[in-house]
Design goal:
six-stranded mixed beta sheet; 2 domains; about 350 residues; about 35% helix; alpha/beta; 6 strands
């Protein structure tokens, strides 16, 4: 990209130069020749590049060569002092003002960048600075909360605006010279004034208050699973299961022996081999009632309980008859064993 060169008159707080810096190419565009002929009251010869350059320089260097870049509709007073009326037309007439932003040309380049540079006039700069101080700063200060350095921040913001508006230079294509009028005055065409308006209003920055301080929240230390208060954290609700309650085997066998029960017991024990029966030796004189609940425990999804098998000790406690036989195992001598107990 070619270097962006500007004359010293385009610097901030620099006065207007007596002559505009104009650089033309080796070939003059026809639209420039037509513009110069239209704006000059005195007919001058425009047959060469130096003649075009001399004519354009004298025209733009005239004290009356002031251009209107844009117009801004701004409030006349802070928001709290504006007049309230039901008619919006009356509010607009009493509460708003139209500021015309004017500038003069400081640089014309038709060789490297094909651009023209404008710098705001002192009157326009002064009007914008006054509006920023008396209205804009008051409104932004009223719309933000107070803190210790609020006034200092508002003052700093205004000083930054003064520097920015004095440094403001609008650069656009050289075709803007088609808006040139008599005595070097002019007006931007093709919607360029809206671009200038957006650039200037972008200099009116809002007041940004400092972010709120982060307050450290003191949280209690986490409780370990071993602490009593945290016991409920690790406890789990008891899941109800469908395991049937254990039933005492002596409740299953009737108290009085019958033929049917004897027959069933005989057939059941007869079907079992000697190797499948394990009896304690010696037989204890006293034992707790045997429960077979642990033998058929399974997962909660049990469709039906497994029938309990009667053991010899169960038959002895239920006082079964001697008719119960176990294939020569000695159970027919029940009366002798019962007498010794």
């Amino acid at each position: 990209m070619p270097p962006q060169l500007l004359p010293a008159s385009a610097a901030a707080f620099a006065p207007r130069a007596s002559s505009v810096n104009v650089v033309l190419s080796s070939k003059v565009e026809p639209w420039l020749t037509a513009t110069l002929k239209r704006t000059n009251r005195v007919k001058r010869p425009l047959n060469s590049v130096p003649q075009h350059q001399r004519c354009l320089t004298e025209t733009l260097s005239s004290p009356t060569a002031i251009w209107t870049l844009t117009s801004l509709m701004l409030p006349k007073a802070p928001e709290a002092e504006l007049r309230k009326d039901s008619n919006p037309l009356i509010e607009a007439l009493f509460n708003y003002q139209l500021i015309h932003v004017e500038a003069y040309i400081v640089h014309v380049d038709m060789v490297l960048r094909n651009e023209v540079a404008f710098k705001l006039t002192p009157d326009s700069i002064e009007s914008l600075i006054e509006y920023h101080k008396e209205i804009h700063c008051v409104d932004i200060a009223a719309n933000t909360y107070s803190w210790s350095e609020k006034e200092l921040q508002v003052k700093k913001l205004h000083e930054e605006f003064i520097q920015a508006i004095n440094k403001f230079v609008y650069r656009t294509h050289v075709s803007a010279l088609e808006g040139l009028e008599e005595d070097g005055a002019g007006e931007l065409l093709c919607g360029k004034s809206e671009e200038v308006k957006n650039n200037i209003m972008g200099l009116f920055l809002p007041l940004l208050p400092p972010p709120p301080r982060v307050v450290d929240i003191v949280r209690p230390p986490p409780l370990l699973p071993s602490s009593p208060a945290g016991a409920n954290w690790w406890s789990q609700p008891t899941i109800p299961t469908s395991v049937p309650a254990p039933v005492d085997s002596w409740r299953v066998i009737p108290s009085s022996p019958s033929t049917t029960s004897s027959t069933d017991s005989n057939s059941l024990w007869a079907s079992m081999g000697l190797n499948e029966i394990q009896l304690p030796s010696p037989t204890p004189s006293y034992s707790q009632p045997f429960s077979t609940a642990g033998l058929f425990y399974s997962a909660p999804q049990v469709s039906a309980p497994i029938p309990s098998l009667p053991l010899p000790s169960m038959l002895a406690q239920s006082q079964c008859g001697v008719s119960v036989g176990y294939g020569g195992f000695g159970w027919d001598r029940y009366q002798e064993y019962a007498a010794t107990m």
